[in-house]
Amino acid sequence: MGIAIPIGLAVTTALAMPMVPAVPTRWAALARRLPASSAPTPAITLYRDTNGWCPFCERVWLQLETKGLPYEEVLINLRDKPQWYKDMVPTTLVPAVKIRSGGTEEVVWESDVILRRLEELHPEPAMLPPDGERAAAEALIAEAGNLSSAGFRFAAAVRNASVTQEEVASLRAAFEDGLDALDAAIAEGGGPFICGGSVGLADATYLPFLERWAVQLPLTSGFALRPEEGEPPRWPQIEGWFVAMAEEPAYARVRGDTYSWSAAVAAFQRIFATNGTLSDAQRAVSRRADGAAALELRRSAQAAPSAAAALAAAEKIIANWEAVVADATAAEPLSQANLQRLEEEDGAAVELLLADCAARLLQCAGRWEDEAGGEPAAEGGEEEEEERALCEAELLGLEPLEHKVRADAARLVSARLCAPRDMGADAAEAMRGVLMAMASESEGLAWRKSGGLL
Ligand SMILES: N[C@@H](CCC(=O)N[C@@H](CS)C(=O)NCC(=O)O)C(=O)O
């Protein structure tokens, strides 16, 4: 990543270095480098799924971001929905939003109802054409369900051994017809978005499935919605839409990335395995998805993150490091249980890794040192300087096996990191890149210090 590496900020445990109040000082020192936030409690709450997989939530989420409306998020675990949520939302499904205004609260559920209500309450920027010019947009929105069913029917048929080749071919043709029609409609509206030059409700409606199909259909069904690099696109307008969407600031926090959708494919195969046993076809898909995810992790090691992405990742670690340590050392992990966790006693090493990773991300974000590369950007005083020196000594003194644990922790955390569940795709890529660099570094040190044994 071409950055000088700041040494982590503090010692692993207060026990090892009793003279330093390790944890509070370390995280406080990192937090001092974050921009101050004084945002009032937002008037909108979005209730969405913990995994970040729900396509209906993504529609509303994109709308909130596009309109620039301040909102807070409450995550609902769909496998164990809290009673208060079931009492609040009659369908018990996500998404829902709570809108506070003038002392009253309104709860709205069903994604299409939410989209329309938010449009009504917050008409700017408009995500529907003006009255009287809406017919094409409404027709496209109404058609989305048919395209999504055609895609899912085709994908399910490919995986079903009892469906004949002819039936698969006919479902594929029906799906391709739907994509042809969408491509033509985008051209008709002038592009690059589905109904013209700006993001609208039609984009929000199509986005969730087009986005995951682009990554998942090649893995599950041998179907390329987007072209291989250098190849001409089969659907040029849809391709132009993907490119335009990727540049939309509103999409940055909402977008699921290639790594996360590939990892989700493998997770789905395991979730839907009969009695925990994968069929040959499921195993093949799972291996392809694991391979694509691993490749993507390696690719992120070469990423050159923007300052904003690095800062967003650092903010998230600083706010959430305790949960990450708990997950990385969980005896019974709640998700991605196939990823090997560390021992409980490795918690301190994971914490040090995370603090170090946050420090490096802050450095990428230009919030570590001043422009001359000298003094720290935030004044932490002598205590902080002392901590840095201790930490430097500690890192230099790590045993080969401790470096091995650190490298395993870095690879584990980068594989656990999913977008949009945990952070935006660019932030996730920035953090994975730093973690992969740290893993290689520690592996090199473990190898060198052990005389090539580890
Ligand atoms: N028609 C609803 C569908 C919402 C929906 O199916 N949400 C799923 C998550 S993708 C859900 O809450 N599932 C939990 C459950 O079925 O209990 C909408 O558009 O909001």
Task: Map the helices and strands.
Layout: H1 22-31, E1 44-49, H2 55-67, E2 71-76, H3 83-88, E3 96-101, E4 104-109, H4 111-121, H5 135-159, H6 165-189, H7 201-221, H8 236-246, H9 258-271, H10 280-300, H11 307-328, H12 347-364, H13 381-396, H14 400-416, H15 425-449
Parallel strand pairs: 1-2
Antiparallel strand pairs: 1-3, 3-4
This protein binds glutathione (GSH).
From the structure above, extract its key features.
single chain; mainly alpha; Glutaredoxin; Glutathione S-transferase Yfyf (Class Pi), Chain A, domain 2; 15 helices; 5% strand; globular; disordered N terminus
Low-confidence stretches: 1-22
Question: How many beta-strand elements?
Answer: 4
The whole-number mean of residue pLDDT values reads 89
Any guess at the CATH architecture of the domain at 137-197 and 200-247? Up-down Bundle
Radius of gyration of CA atoms, rounded to a whole number: 24 Å
Helix content: 55-70%
Largest sheet: 4 strands, mixed
Distance between the termini: 25 Å
Q: What percentage of amino acids are in beta strands?
A: 5-15%
Query: Tally the helices: what do you get?
Result: 15
Q: Helix-strand pattern, N to C? A: HEHEHEEHHHHHHHHHHHH
CATH class of the domain at 137-197 and 200-247 reads Mainly Alpha
Could you give the order of strands across the largest sheet?
2-1-3-4
Bound molecules: glutathione
CATH topology-level name of the domain at 137-197 and 200-247: Glutathione S-transferase Yfyf (Class Pi), Chain A, domain 2
